[in-house]
Amino acid sequence: MEKIIVLDFGGQYAHLIANKIRRLNVFSEILEPNTETEKLKDTKGIIFSGGPASVYENDAPAFNQEVFSLGIPILGICYGHQLTVHALGGVVEKGKTQEYGIAKLRVKKASQLLEGFEGNGQVWMSHADIVKELPEGFETIASTSHCENALIENKEKKIFGLQFHPEVVHTTNGMKILDNFLKICDCRKDWTMKNYVAEKIAEIKQSAAGKNVFLLASGGVDSTVCLALLNNALGNDRVRALHIDNGFMRKNESALVMKALKKQGFENLQILDASEYFLEKTSGVTSPEEKRKIIGNAFIEAQKQALEKMGLDSGDWLLGQGTIYPDTIETGRTKNSAVIKTHHNRVEIIQKMIEEGKVIEPLNLLYKDEVREIGEELGLPKELVWRHPFPGPGLAVRALCTEGIEEKVSESVKAKVQAIAGNFGLESTVLPLKSVGVQGDHRTYKHPAVLNGIAEWEELEQASTRITNEVQEINRVVWLVAGEIEEKTQPATLTKERMDDLREADAIVEEKLLEFELYDKVWQFPVVLVPLDVQGKEAIILRPVLSTEAMTARFADLPLEFVKSTAQKIMQTGKFGAVLYDITHKPPGTIEWE
Known about the structure:
The chain is an alpha/beta fold and 594 residues long. The chain has helices at 13-23, 37-40, 79-87, 174-184, 193-207, 221-234, 253-263, 275-281, 288-309, 325-330, 348-355, 368-377, 382-385, 411-422, 457-470, 496-515, 560-572; strands at 3-7, 27-31, 45-48, 74-77, 91-107, 121-133, 139-144, 147-154, 159-162, 212-216, 239-245, 269-273, 317-320, 359-360, 427-430, 435-439, 442-452, 474-483, 527-534, 537-542, 545-546, 554-555, 576-582.
């Protein structure tokens, strides 16, 4: 079986690239950048991934430069593009403008990499450094307004560099670029997901030999597909699934999960109401990272208690988890990646269990789109496979908390934001709280800006992109659609009352999505509660996104009739002072606010 090697320089990108290569029916293997030359020879092509480092930093990832002498086609992407230039004698420097999100590609010359293209195209950027001078033998093929050397090549040596990310869904013709690279590499397309499922079932049987599996089943896509895989491999009698109601579930979620899974014959499933336990553990906590870690540890404690209650010997049981690759990446668990946010299935206690061989995770190298494909391969129904993703910590990470100490925003930052907003006929302010973002593959914790006024989606997108690119203190932009905003916060922690309020707003959103027949058009729709003080009431953020694998996402520009109808119904509850709409892509804003 022929393969492509992807060298992992960290961040989110190596496995996303491998995902897309597999989508083109070619097997891909991920290796460390400093892998010895002998192991790099047995491949049809090599791809350098993106990553959070800068080539001129002392702690930049070490890599094997002999790769350039193998005579194998090479494609460098983002950091990999910069590294290729730097290693071969070109010049890389810090750009004048950070560039995150959409850019327009201007093609200047023909290239095998662009075979089949018609005109120019949209590309997805995430970088601060740029290629200033090309090495000998390279030429510029395409540019963007902020990046002269967006696509370069050495035709003779079959070495290519892209500053943008072809592997993300928001680069039009991105898959065509990767497919063209496979043609340059002369690859046969003989890898399938059906074969992968068979291999994974065999692997589960081997990994769980002599053991049973105890799976934490949220009812989401990942844990449901994981349960189906485990049942197929081991049989229902060797697998127990536990659904834990942690008090942060959506309205009637646990009852609906049980009903849906039982309908599919998952009789080896039980439910545990641990809502009071989780609320007690997170009482008074305001830090996003601390919340995530506490909830992750609480899941393990609840699982242990359940094993004891059922009279099961924990030594005979492995912990099963529906962990997918983005969980690992964003928790900084690969060699060159930064911590964006700690996922509940990647807290320290679980890492220790993984090292001790006590955890089984059949999906941990896959992305959401691949998990869904496995679900369909296993015969799961559409309503389970295509449910909107829901985070393990649930609404706990969709309810921002604060001690009430406002994060001061300088007048100069506000002025910069307003200068950009004014170009689009909009007013602006900056919220005195912070949310998590991801810029240049690093975690950011910065202020959101608010835009107020009438504008088309395209104008809002342009304004949002300019603000997050040009104002370093801002990583997210929202649009006020109902109510009003005051620049002050109120103390807020995780309480049942706040969760109930958020559950009600979340239920309204789902009801409206179904009413307007938009549920299947949106990949995920977080509803976020933020402790702004709007005449004593909090605010709701609507965060619909379009994605396939969660590593990148576009905000969803849904019909304004839906937006207004939804906001109106939320305001009519009398519980909220404002409704805002998140108009930030990922990057620079994460999908979730925490």
